[in-house]
Amino acid sequence: MRTMKRTAQNAGLALAGGLALTACLATLTGGTAAQASQTSVPRAGATATSHPTLAPAFTLCSRGSYASYAVFPKRDNLRTATAGPGTCVSQSLKGQTHEQVVLYGIHPDGSSFKIASDSFDTAEGERVNTLNTPDDNDWETF
Fold first, then answer.
1. pLDDT tens across 88-136, in order?
2. What is the bridge-based pairing of β-strands 88-92 and 98-106?
3. Exposure string (b/e) for 65-96, b if CB count within 10 Å is 16 or more?
4. d(Cα 116, Cα 104) in Å, to the nearest integer?
5. Could you give the percent of the chain with pLDDT greater than 70?
6. Is 60 helix (H, G, I), strand (E, B) or coil?
7. 133/27 Cα distance (integer angstroms)
8. Which of 79, 69, 61 is nearest to 106 (CA)?
């Protein structure tokens, strides 16, 4: 019986400590202890909430001195936004495993040039850097 009493006392201390921590967190976040306990302590029988999973994305970064974009021929020539030098763009994709992607660069005069064509695993997502200059262009996955 003594063990049960000690356990009950320890539980009471833990509960009191938890309430004090909740009140402290509420003060730090600008809320009340009641608001903090509502948001930080799950109710009995509560289940974890599921977050929607994001579709895999194709990410293109222009790490060269020129802007670049990608085209997906099997998706009615879907085109990514243009990634300016030093920036990245992403295109959400779903539904296909391997597909052709054509990488293009943009000359300073605005005309496009083909960098490469390859097959990527877009079902998992893919990340590509375009590199160097328009006259010495290249690409890599990262």
1. 999 988 877 788 999 999 999 999 999 999 998 767 789 999 999 999 9
2. unpaired
3. bbbbbbbbeebeeeebebbeeeeebebebeee
4. 7
5. 61
6. strand
7. 54
8. 69
Q: Which residues fall within 8 angstroms of residue 67, CB to CB, at 6 or more apart?
A: 82, 83, 84, 85, 105, 106
> CA 101, 133, 100: angle at the middle one, nearest 5?
5
pTM: 0.62
* CB atoms near residue 138 (< 10 Å): 14
pLDDT value of position 96? 73
Q: Provide the 3-class DSSP secondary structure of residue 36.
A: helix
Which residue shows structure tokens 């590199």? Answer: 131
d(CA 104, CA 22): 54
**Would you put residue 36 in left (φ > 0), alpha (ψ -120 to 50) or beta?**
alpha
Instruction: Give per-residue burial for 48-60: e unless 16+ CB within 10 Å, then b.
Output: eeeeeeeebbbbb
Q: In this predicted structure, what is the pLDDT of residue 99?
A: 86
Compute the distance between CA of residue 109 and CA of residue 103 in angstroms, rounded to an integer. Answer: 18
